[in-house]
Structure formats: C-alpha cells, structure tokens
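User: Structure tokens for this complex, please. No commentary.
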Amino acid sequence: MEIAFLLIPLAVLLVFVILGGFWWAIHTGQFEDLEEEGSRILEQD
Amino acid sequence: MVHIAMAASQALSGANPWQGLDIQSEWERFSQRDTSSSHVWTSHVWVDSMHCAACSGRIEQTIKQLPGVLAVYASAASKRVRVVWDAQKISPSQWFANLDEIGYTAMPVNEYNAITNRTVQQRKMLWRLVVAVFCMMQVMMYAYPTYTADSNDMAPDMVQLMKWASWVLTLPVMLFSATPFLSQAWISLKQRQLGMDVPVSLGIITAFVMSTLATFAPGGWWGDVVYYDSLTMFVSFLLIGRWLDVKLRNRTAGALENMMRRLPHAVLKKSETGEWVQIAASNINVGDILYVRPGEIFAADGKVIVGNTSADESMLTGESDPVMKPTGAQVIAGSGNLTSVIEMQVEQVGEGTQYHALVNLMASASTEKPGIALLADKVAQPFLWGVLLAALVAVGYWWSIDPAKAVMSAVAVLVVTCPCALSLATPAAMLASAGTFAKGGVLIRRLQAIQAMSEIDTIVFDKTGTLTENLQQVQLAETHPDWGNTLILDMLASITRDSLHPVAKALHTYAVEQDALTDLVMHDWQEVVGGGISATLDTQAEAAVAVKLGNAQFSGVMESDIGAERQVYLMAGNVMVARFTLTEQVKPHAKAAISQLISQGLDIQLLSGDRIAPVKNLALQLGIQSASGLQKAEDKLQHVMLLQKQGRKVLMVGDGLNDGPVIAAAHTSIAMGTGVPLTQAQADMVVLGNDIGVLVSLISHCKKTILIVKQNLLWAALYNAAGVPLAIMGLLPAWLAGLGMAASSLLVLLNALRLTDWNKSGWQKGQA
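Assistant:
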C-alpha cells in the first residue's frame, strides 16, 4: 500500500494537468458550437 | 427587369461598393480607437465563408500587404477577422474591397462588444463548472474509502494524506468556482438586502472552515470529520444551474441580435442621376428608392413601385406562406424578397419600422417580472430568516450531544433550503412560454398577461379587422339604365381616388380591377365624415356633373334594402346612378374558434362601432349571444367597466388602435391582425397574422403555463417542508441535501421545458 503515498499526489497533479487541457479547450471555443462542426463536412466550400 | 439588373451591375462595377463605410461614424460602429494613437483603429468583421485555417491564412496575407494595415488576425473558428489599420493611410472600403477580390465577403460586426462580453461570460461560467466538477470527482474518490473501509483497515497516515489531497483539490473550488456566490452574498450583505446567496455562502464557508480545522488540527471541538465531498458537490450543482441560466439568457440575447443582423448592411439606392449606388443601410432616408434582388432582405418599410414579387414575412407574422407583393404593396423591413427584382420607395427607416418595434417588444417583454414572481421575491426575506433560525435550532440542539453533528446538521439545513427551485419556478415557465409564443407569431408585451389570460371568463371582440377581414367584397347591385357601366366605374374610381376611408378604398380597388379610369377631372372634392364624398366631375359625355357617393342619408335616397350589407349610393345630381353593396368577409376560423371558446365556458360578446344590422347578423352567424352595434370608444369602455364591476375578468380583442382606453381598462387584451402598427399597439399581447383560431390554443397554453408555475412552486415548498425537519434532526447528510437541492432545481427547469411545445392549431382537431 506504500505506493498510494506516491499515487495520490500524482493523481492530484494529474487533475491539474487535465484541467489545463480543459482551460485550453474552453478558451479556444471548442464547446461553443457543437452542432455546426458535425454538419460542415456536408457543405460545399 | 433585366435592364434594371444590368444597369445596377454596371453602376456597381465602377464604384467601390463599400464606400458607405468610409465615414467615421459608420466605421466607429464596428471599430475601436487605439488607446495609443488617435488614428489607429481596430475593426471587427465577419467573414461567413471562412471555414478553414487555409482561408484565414490567405485573408491575413492579402490584407497585411495593403499599406496602412498594421495587423490582421483571422480566426476560422469564429469566422471573425480583426484588422488594425491607420485611418490616415487607408480607408475601410479599400480593405473590404480587397477581401471581395479574393472571394471573401466581409460584414461589419456592429454588436461585436456585446457578443464578446457574452462569450467571455459563458466561457468563464463553463470553466468554473469544469473546475468544480473535476475536483469534485477526485475528492469523491478520496472520500469513498473513508465511508466504506473499516476504521482499522486504513493506516492513519493514509487517511491524513487523503484529507490533505482533498483539501488541495477543494481550494480551487472555494477560491475560484464558488466566487460568484460568495461575492454576490457579500454585495447583498453590504446593501443590507438579504439575498438568496447569503445562506448558500454561509453553508459553503462553514463547511470549508470546519473541514480545514479537522484536517490540520484534528481533535478539537470541531471533530475530525471533513465535508470536502459535500462542499464540492454542492458548488458543482449550483454551478450547473447558473451555467444553464447563462446559456439560456445568451441564447435569447443571441436570437434578438440575429434578428437585428437580419437587416442588410448595405443597399442599392437610386441616385439623383438615376444610377444605382451602394450605400450603408444606416444612411437610408425616407423617400429613397431602393433596388432589392430576390433572396435579399428588405432594409426598410416601404412600397413596391416597380415590379411584382412575393415576400416571406414569416418572421413577422408566423405565417409561412409567401405573400404576394404587386406594385403598390407594402413591404416590411426584415421580411425577405422571394421571387423577383423590385424597386421600392422607403417610407419608414430605423426605429420607425415595424421590425424595430417587434425587436423592442421582445426585448422589453423578456425583462418584465410577472406578479407571481414578485410574490416569490417578497417571501424570500422571511424565508431566509426562517432558514437561519432553523440552522440555529439545529446547532443549539446538537451542541451538547455531539458538536460535529451540530455543524453537520446546520450545514444540511442551509443547503437543503437553498431557494434555487423557488426562485426558478416562475420565470422559467413564463419565459419558456413567451419564447414559444413568439415563434408562433404571438408577441407578449408584459409577462403578467400570461397570468391574466389564464384567469379570464369573458371575451369582448371588436368586429372589423378582428372577426372580419378588413377587405370588403363589393357588388354592383343596381344601375340606372341611362348610364353605362364603364362610365359608372370611371366615376367611382375617380371620386374615391384620394380617400383613405376603408369603404372608399374597397370601392376604388373594385373599380380599378375592372380597368376603370381614375383620371376624370374633378373639382370641389369633399369628404364628409360619416356620410360620403361629393365632387364635380367632367365626364366625356357631359361636363361638370355634381356627383355624390355615400350612404342613404348623405345621398338623399331611401335605404333600399335594410340587410346586413352596407349600401353605398352613387348619385349624379338627384339621380341615383348606381347602388353598391359591401359584404364583410368573416375570417376563416372565426366560427369554429368562437364555438370552441363558448364550449369552454367563456362568455363571448361583440361590441362594434358599426351599424346594428351587420353586427347582429355577424353575431348570429358566429353564434354570439350578446352583440351591440353603434358603440363608440366611450360606450365600449363603459360596457367593459360594467362587466368588471360584476367581478368579471375581461379579455378585450381588438385591432389595438382605436380601442386604446378599453384595452387599458380590460383585465388583459390582445391586438389582432396583420395591419397593426406595432409601435402604437397598446395591447398586452399582439397576434401577428390573421388567424383568430390562435386565441383558443393561446388561452389554453396560458392556463397550462400557470398550472406548471403552480406545480413548480408546490414542489419547491414541499421539498423544503420535508427537508428542513430531517436536516435539523441530523438525518440528512449535507451531500444528500445538495443532491436534493440540485434535483429539485432540475425538476423545475424540465417541467418548464414542457411548455416549449405549443400546437397552434391543435384545437381544430376536435372540430373536424
């Protein structure tokens, strides 16, 4: 069980890394328009 | 039409179509002045056809080469381009034209700031939510073993490590995610106005302080229980509610802006030399002649002067059928030109257009608080004091028995009574209905009207334009044998040419349809109110005939047929040349709708300014028991007030113009009809389009709305009534209270969403 003493701090760090990813996604507008992106492939340029 | 189109394109090829943007007041609308230099501007434009990174790269490269352009940032994701330029070296029209050349048409983004603010706000709320949810999930993981494992299974070191980890993960939730609640509570405390956020913040802070003490200094009177899981979960649920709220509000604001954006930014105007030049839509003046191609949106209200087309007015009327627009017809800003090229003369611009009135109407309705919501605000204060008292009782009761439990149950009381559901109950339902009505062509001026509409027991109808069409059917009933039909029609068409009276208009249209001449020479033309028209006409056969057109009394003849139809006599001297009858057409669904309303137990009455015979006749046709004619505005007002003295709740349905005072006095009111100038309409609701049947489904949907509001309020009350005692007794852990609170808010929202389904003509099914 000693490994948990390493894993728990690592997991906490990982949360912050993942949150960093979300920060990027939200602030570049990845969640702004969820419908249009899917249908764009059907449009002609 | 072809030559017009060609002329236009020739005129266009020479001039820069974006010249209209080169005035500073124009570019200020989509640009901001640089803080460091007074002639450097940052402009935002919208390029709809920019889909990929390659497009944005091409745009950036092309515009950057222009002298005077300092920087270009194009974003394919938002379809926006930001251009920094020097007003001393370049004008906006130059880089707009440059974009045109490489195949990208740009549009100025006028409301850029508003959109940016909303986007930033929504992103921030989502970011708060994501932080809270992620940390919550992690905290749950560390809380789980302490709930399930035997106390001997886990080393104390391990338990302590998990507490520390949870504390680290709770910090961002406390310091970042929960700040909207905390700061709002602080503001309301400073203003000495107890708001909904005060007990929420109290709960969060209490839980956090207790847990922190338990983590870093275990063994005190605060015990060693931590509430990180309850706390993060609670904040997450609250944020879900907030985020949905922000999203919903932004969508409404976005919908309004989309409506505004519908109007074109640039139009083709006929210049003094007869050429077509492109000008900015904000520079259109009354009297201008504009060139509108199929597929374009009319930029102003006006009249078609060259060409025939059809228009899509569904946005304004809710009717999806195209409307024919022959020469002379009125077109409305915001509606679409469908079939062919026309020229129009502008009669109303900007704020004066029906379209603007519509947008303003929607905007004002969405900020109004209905009476029932005001009630919720009123109970909020005593409610909160009650909550604080209950929390104190819980602490007092448990303090001597188990201090840790005291904290826990106080937190639970504060959480379980979170008045989210209570404050969401009414506005959610009302706004859902108002939005649905707007889509179906019914505009609500005041949200109170929904409540009032659900209470009515009497409906008073106006006749003309409400139950009957404004257009009247004309028949030539009788002619003098010495006078030819052609001459009669020529006289009729000429004498009615300049009158605005609806009867004269109907007669004029009738005559013109039969190719009558409208240009007989007239002298001494005179219109007598309530009588008719008199003039001296020069006909081909005879000069200076004294002609009269009007009712029997005015024409000096005996009423020949006292029926439902209106009789109009054309006199030449003392000889009756012709008699016309005008029949009003009952609106298509009027009969079915009225009988449906009567079967619902509503008392239907008809009040009209028209003569008694046609009013009685119409009442008979439609099955209305109580009808009176010859009612002036004061008579109508007295009648309605009398009804109200008897304790009745009266809905007044009229054209919304002539009935101003009656409409103000009635419990609630609806203005009907396509011809209603919205700016002047006084009614609580405006039904666009011509379908009287909408009334039936409108009333039943209003009733349904109020029912759902009551369900919501009942649910919120029941939930509190059950939750508070349980929490005081310590039977409700804080996390369960948080879950219940979130679930009750969600339930209220979902219940309100049922109102977005409105079947406008569903009532007819039972009829067939």
